[in-house]
Amino acid sequence: MSGLSVKLKTPHTGEYDQPTGLFINNEFVKGVDGKTFEVINPTDESVITSVHEATEKDVDIAVSAARKAFEGNWRKETPENRGKLLVNLANLFEKNVDLLAAVESLDNGKAITMAKGDVGACVGCLRYYGGWADKIEGKVVDTGPDTFNYIRKEPIGVCGQIIPWNFPLLMWAWKIGPAVAAGNCVVLKTAEQTPLSALVACNLIKEAGFPPGVINVISGFGKIAGAALSSHMDVDKVAFTGSTVVGRQIMKAAAGSNLKKVTLELGGKSPNIVFADADIDNAISWVNFGIYFNHGQCCCAGSRVYVQEEIYDKFIQRFKERAAQNAVGDPFHEKTFQGPQVSQLQFDRIMSYIEEGKKAGATIETGGNRIGDKGYFIEPTIFSNVTEDMKIVQEEIFGPVCSISKFKNKEDAIKVGNSTTYGLAAAVHTSNLNTAIEVANSLRAGTVWVNTYNTLHWQLPFGGFKESGIGRELGEAALDNYTQTKTVSIRLGDALFG
Ligand code: NAP
Ligand code: MG
């Protein structure tokens, strides 16, 4: 293996080569200023290794590499070949599932079975967009006999992509897949908390056969490298996933620089609504999975649970028993469902929300405590006796904490479901088809699940209403955000103008 790397070990893979450099032009390189930063293992708080840090100068270098690749051969590459390279990459992810998942669990702390699920979803996503590369089509529009008009879908150019730490590999695939399928080149910044799996995946980019500069991946801090990307004059688009606060900064940076196109996938405070006629076993499983999957670190987490009053008492009793049974612990244990939160900062934020909830007068039905004294483990937590104005009901906690309250009827459910500034996801559990459709159509959210939760699929668009974002990821819709429309209008005949 070329470039910068260290030997690391995971309980599932034994020793492996962990790249530590910035991935620019298909090579791992040091940052210009020679800076590095530590990567922490959230399971035991130890330092795993250090990786090279990108500063503004490295962002410039990476953007130039992407620009050169775009203006050079990539924009002339056949769609068939773009698709083939993405499918190669998908196949390599599939071949390396064990390594990629183990590195993800090591760095992020997610349960290994979930990490394998993430890699499987990366495979699906990359292969899906590989399939799209030669199906991005324009149109001919007839405006009359004197003109021939055609509409092309062209790549935007160099795309800056800034991703979070909750799904490091999956966000990598969601961003890179559609961008590259549509013929763009990218500079992607990973989250400072979780740079490792993306760097391992960079080895596969080279192996898949991508030309240098098409996909560049840098580790670094949001305030430095992220800000440099979003305000860069030679970046044509920025795609961001993360907090609403930073999303606003990204838009400002775009507005204050070259008005680059912006897509944002931000937070949520999604309602999970259970009607009295729902299959209760099924509803409890999905409500549990809705909030505790990925340790509650999901932008679409079902963090506000509403249960129809007739079944509320029964539901809460069974839900708290179910939540208390979730296996929390070592992410490398096959039976673990919930590992540690990603970082000390996130751990502290969540614990302070729990304190806040208690102070506001909400009741802890289960959980509320740290587990152990090493690693960022938190008990699955349910708050009842909440009011809509409480912070724990309005703000994104991004941890294994939900609130639960009652509703009376359909109108009431729709009203509380929509009582948030967010609009990423929602769910309704019912056995009545009319209720399901009426409520789903009335909730202001980008995704509404019926009798299920968190079941995203790369073929289905995902993104936010209201303050949950701008644009869509996944599905055909993502391609709209990575192409721009050009109209070519040709005057026919030889009559002179005027
Ligand atoms: P964040 O700051 O929004 O981080 C997301 C990404 O943006 C990271 O790569 C981050 O870099 C980068 N970033 C930070 N400041 C930036 C700036 N000024 N310009 C450009 N990029 C910047 O999120 P966080 O601090 O990790 O988490 C805080 C909260 O955000 C969570 O509690 C949760 O509510 C929400 N969140 C949402 C999602 C989601 O999927 N929608 C994901 C993660 C977090 P760094 O490497 O320096 O962090
Ligand atoms: Mg980490």
TrEMBL record:
<keyword id="KW-0560">Oxidoreductase</keyword>
<dbReference type="InterPro" id="IPR016161">
    <property type="entry name" value="Ald_DH/histidinol_DH"/>
</dbReference>
<dbReference type="InterPro" id="IPR016160">
    <property type="entry name" value="Ald_DH_CS_CYS"/>
</dbReference>
<dbReference type="InterPro" id="IPR029510">
    <property type="entry name" value="Ald_DH_CS_GLU"/>
</dbReference>
<dbReference type="GO" id="GO:0005739">
    <property type="term" value="C:mitochondrion"/>
</dbReference>
<comment type="similarity">
    <text>Belongs to the aldehyde dehydrogenase family.</text>
</comment>
<dbReference type="InterPro" id="IPR016162">
    <property type="entry name" value="Ald_DH_N"/>
</dbReference>
<dbReference type="InterPro" id="IPR015590">
    <property type="entry name" value="Aldehyde_DH_dom"/>
</dbReference>
<keyword id="KW-0520">NAD</keyword>
<dbReference type="GO" id="GO:0004029">
    <property type="term" value="F:aldehyde dehydrogenase (NAD+) activity"/>
</dbReference>
<feature type="active site">
    <location>
        <position position="265"/>
    </location>
</feature>
<dbReference type="Pfam" id="PF00171">
    <property type="entry name" value="Aldedh"/>
</dbReference>
<dbReference type="InterPro" id="IPR016163">
    <property type="entry name" value="Ald_DH_C"/>
</dbReference>
<dbReference type="GO" id="GO:0019413">
    <property type="term" value="P:acetate biosynthetic process"/>
</dbReference>
<protein>
    <recommendedName>
        <fullName>Aldehyde dehydrogenase</fullName>
        <ecNumber>1.2.1.3</ecNumber>
    </recommendedName>
</protein>
<feature type="domain" description="Aldehyde dehydrogenase">
    <location>
        <begin position="29"/>
        <end position="488"/>
    </location>
</feature>
<comment type="pathway">
    <text>Alcohol metabolism; ethanol degradation; acetate from ethanol: step 2/2.</text>
</comment>
